[in-house]
């Protein structure tokens, strides 16, 4: 670096000497020509000034070079630090990468070991299954205690499963899902979807009973897949070959999925009507159907024991099980199908053998007729008499059945008031209001039905008022309208209902946007009946 600076400085001095020499020569020439007027002293002074300027420039140059050297030194130091930091970071990255690689290798190794163990376990468990026949496989399917063991068996033999094995796997899985013994939802389980695809590709090999089992299972799982529509169409086309039980399953599935195809419903109703008109037809319970052990939470009746019914032998000719007929009629009511000739035929068969029907079945039948507003008071009164004879069985029914029965009897305007009141008392006694209060819909349906039949009991209404306070925040506009009507009707008899009425009015004001003409009229009628003054509600009703 010093040699570089000395060379530059030497060149700089040489250039200045040349300039000085050139100036001197120029002045000499001028003096010889007579144009120069300066003296020798002036020339010396000028040379001296030039030397001073040269020294000053030399000092400035040296200072600049020192500053430049310091700047370069700092730059080199900064670059050195940067390089050191990069090397350190690179070492850290290398270390981190190595750790990640080692961890990944360890996990991969463990996964391989687990897979090997599972494979060996599957081999140990199923080493002899390949020699099982259809009946033995069916037995193994039914013995499965959870979804994993069921699908382990399926995965090992899905290419040798018969359609019967596939159907039994589906029904068993449905049962396990209902018992909460399956860890996955059906639509999220690829093994289940594989099973469904296998069934869908083999529908032409299915028997009528197997089609019914598939429809029931998918309906219970609430899976309205493509195969459902396909099987419904095939079953309707083959309606004459179906047993009455299979027809009831078919129409039940259609009702559950709101499958309202007029032509198909007409075909089903026509076939059932012809069978019911046969003089030789009999209502007979061939097999005992077990009662459900747990109370349903959804607020509708269901074909609870259908899975067990499907496992039972085929019906004999001209024999109809009461459960099949009651469920068939329930499904028609759910779909809103009104066929007067069919209803007359069904009522004739039922009324002649009413003792064969349980309280639940009679409730399903009454639900159907009340839903389509079919009137035959004489026959329905006969149903009520039979229900009263089966009072002991009624006490064993769950609250949903009792509530539905109250609603149906009040809609049809049949049954003695005392009998209906007893049903309401059964519900009150079976309900733990502290732990599980009645839902707003459940409560309002009971209250509205009782009030329409002018049935009043202070204890029941007080309990319902207390329940209203608990569930008011969950009430919709229909619940509010019906409950308000019931409480307002008997406010003069029971002033303690006032608090529940005020809470309902507050809830109605919160649901102002949900009010339509029908609810406004009903609320206005309720306020008038109970002489209730509520400025906020009156303001809303006038809008």
UniProtKB/TrEMBL annotation:
Do the record's keywords include Coiled coil? yes
Organism encoding this protein: Tetrahymena thermophila (strain SB210)
Q: What is this protein called?
A: MutS domain V family protein
- Region of interest called Disordered, as start-end residue ranges on this chain: 102-122
- Coiled coil, from the record: 37-93
Q: Which UniProt keywords apply?
A: Coiled coil
Superkingdom assignment: Eukaryota
